[in-house]
From TrEMBL:
Residues 100-127, 461-520 are annotated as: Disordered. Residues 105-120 have a biased composition (Low complexity). The chain crosses the membrane at residues 16-34. This is Peroxin-3. One of its GO terms (cellular component) is peroxisomal membrane. It comes from Talaromyces rugulosus (Penicillium rugulosum). Keywords: Membrane, Transmembrane, Transmembrane helix. One of its GO terms (molecular function) is protein-macromolecule adaptor activity. Residues 467-487 have a biased composition (Polar residues). InterPro entries: Peroxin-3. GO terms for biological process: protein import into peroxisome membrane.
Length: 520
């Protein structure tokens, strides 16, 4: 039996060897395929988790931008309202009206004289001033009157009310738009650098967990990407310039334009909504630019960031710069890089485009929404034509003239809306909500800022390059992040690095604009 078995194996050993080889190769091939499938599943799972993590980070970053704007806006509002005290002027006009009424009631003039002057002067002024009193707020800094100010005539006071009320509402709209964009740039730049810092730290694990490392390379990576507290604190402090200095230059420019456009109008004059819109558009053309080229050439950087000579002044005035503890060279280099990139973004054509869109929404809310509905009562108010009116014997009735309103009534509403525009965090800001909801390119712009210059951040991160053994892991994380950044916004995909005169930012923004326009 045993001998027969041995002879059978000897006769069939070649076939058995071939069969064993086929089975072994099949087993190895199956194990290889299963390992590749497992790796693909793990890679897809890790990519999905990374995309969700990045999307969650980005969305949270945009929510932080909104809260930051609402927290900073009251500071600028307080400064602007204090510089343009419309309520004080209104109180002075009310005082003059009360004195005039007292003189008229105590005079011994004939009965015909007050009947010819009082209705035209006191009644119109009374209605205009009552609208100011009902629709306006009194700022805390305006409760005390300035006794040293020389007395002004009623005409001068009304002209100052007209110019100041229009100027401060327009300046607040511009300030809200500029602060929104500046905050988006700042927080998204820091959000990008913080995310890259986390990627670097995760891609640089310790080779031996049981070995005690005397050097802390994680701090070097964090500081190289600007993810240190001192750099972030100093960088965010530069919003102080717009809140305390930039608005002054902006107010001077807007005020001179308002005086030129609205200076000839009498507060008692009746104007239509179309005329008001044309006047507002004329002001915007002078401030922002009449053409696309003029708007791109507008210098908004002077209102948002100080010059290099005044950068230390901002840190000193805000209490951030401490002469006793100077900043490290790495912090200074990181801060310089952030400020330079911020300046480049502000001076880019994309910034001008988004700023114009934000201003459009702000002025449309003020003029075409609030003024049209509250002051002009615009809407379908006419009754449908009857059968008799359409008969052959009926006369042709001309179309009704557009509704008109006194400029003083419009000024009262604009004065009240200034406090609504500059409203802070106690309740939702209507103007900011409209800007963020209707300007879809704002999120695309933030996504471009968040994802731009990613490769340059990794290549030019200073001396904090990872050890040679960890570079493949860094390259793998870099590739994964590049594919993940495309999911931040549906309109955004990463572009190449700068070549020639075109920057990666403008290339990416061009893709975002094309996709956004095709979907609208």
């Amino acid at each position: 039996m045993i001998g027969a078995t041995k002879r059978w194996f000897r006769r069939n050993r070649k076939g058995l060897a071939i069969g064993a080889g086929v089975v072994g190769v099949g087993y190895l091939a199956g194990q290889y395929v299963l390992s590749k499938i497992s790796e693909a599943r793990e890679r897809m799972s890790s990519d999905r988790i990374a995309k969700e993590n990045l999307r969650r980070r980005f969305e949270q970053n945009q929510a932080d931008c909104t809260f930051t704007v609402l927290a900073l806006l009251p500071t600028a509002t307080e400064n602007i309202i204090e510089a343009l005290p419309v309520e004080d002027l209104t109180k002075e006009l009310q005082k003059k009206r009360a004195e005039r009424l007292a003189r008229l009631s105590g005079s011994e003039a004939p009965a015909s004289e007050p009947s010819s002057t009082a209705p035209s002067v006191t009644d119109e002024d009374g209605r205009s001033l009552s609208s100011f009193q009902a629709d306006s707020y009194i700022h805390a800094s305006q409760l005390t009157s300035d006794s040293g100010r020389p007395a002004r005539s009623k005409t001068e006071l009304w002209n100052e009310v007209k110019i100041s009320s229009i100027t401060r509402s327009f300046v607040l709209i511009y300030t809200l738009s500029l602060l929104t964009l500046l905050t988006r740039i700042q927080l998204n730049l820091l959000g990008r650098r913080n995310y890259l810092s986390s990627v670097v730290s995760l891609a640089s694990p310790s080779n031996d967990a049981s070995t005690i490392r005397l050097e802390d390379h994680d701090d070097e990576f964090s500081q190289a990407f600007g993810n240190d507290f001192e750099t972030n604190r100093r960088y965010l402090t530069y919003s102080w310039w717009l809140l305390h200095r930039g608005w002054k230059d902006l107010t001077a420019k807007v005020r001179s334009t308002v005086e030129e456009v609205f200076g000839s109008l009498n507060p008692r004059e009746d104007i239509t909504l179309t005329k008001l819109s044309e006047l507002v558009l004329e002001v915007r053309k002078h401030v922002e630019g009449a053409t696309e080229e003029d708007r791109r050439a507008a210098n908004w950087l002077q209102y948002l960031l100080p010059s290099k000579e005044d950068e230390d002044i901002v840190l000193q005035e805000s209490g951030v710069l401490n002469p006793e503890s100077p900043s490290s060279p790495q912090t200074a280099a990181n801060l310089r890089q952030l400020l330079d990139e911020t300046s480049d973004l502000i001076e880019s054509p994309s910034f001008s485009r988004i700023l114009t869109a934000l201003n459009n929404e702000g002025f449309a809310t003020l003029i075409e929404d609030k003024c049209a509905k509250i002051v002009f009562k615009s809407g379908p108010t006419s009754e449908p034509a009857t059968a008799a009116a359409l008969s052959s014997a009926a006369t042709i009735v001309p179309p009704p003239s557009p509704p008109k309103a006194k400029l003083a009534t419009i000024l009262a509403l604009i004065t009240r809306e200034a406090h609504v525009i500059g409203h802070g965090t106690s309740s939702p800001n209507e103007y900011l909500s409209v800007m963020e909801q209707n300007v879809r390119d704002l999120e695309a712009f933030a996504a471009v800022v968040y994802s731009s210059n990613f490769q340059l951040e990794l290549l030019h991160s200073g001396d904090a390059s990872p050890p040679s053994g960890q570079q493949p892991s860094m390259a793998k994380s870099s590739t994964a992040l590049q594919s993940t950044l495309e999911t931040i916004s549906p309109e955004v995909a990463l572009g190449s690095q700068p070549t020639g005169e075109d920057s990666a930012f403008e290339k990416v923004w061009g893709k975002a604009v094309e996709n956004s326009e095709s979907t609208t």
